Amino acid sequence: MNDKDATSTPPVSSPNKLDPIAMLREELAAAALCHGVERVEDLTEELISRVIQRLGGVHVYVPGQRAVDRKRVTQQIRDSFDGCNAFELSRRFGLSLRQVQRIVLMDSVSTPTRM
Questions:
Q1: Which pTM value belongs to this model?
Q2: Residue 1 within any structural domain of the chain
Q3: Taking residues 76-94, what's their average pLDDT?
């Protein structure tokens, strides 16, 4: 097992700019250390190289936690809707009845019906 700990990784960013590659390198190294991976640096650098190869030069959008949570709740509402329980879902998820109806309606509009 490794003698290093996750605090030995380089800092993620300078005072003015976030470096996503440095952040990814730090997270990969920490995960590898937590799982007892040997040769953490080799694994980390290989994964960084693959990410750069696949995404280099591409602008990547990473959604915030609120957007991820909203998408999860929307999917739960759609999965739970049975045609008659919009009011119950609005109470369970803390939304208005109209918001639940809009979520369910958008699902039915976005998925075309077959004839």
A1: 0.57
A2: no
A3: 96
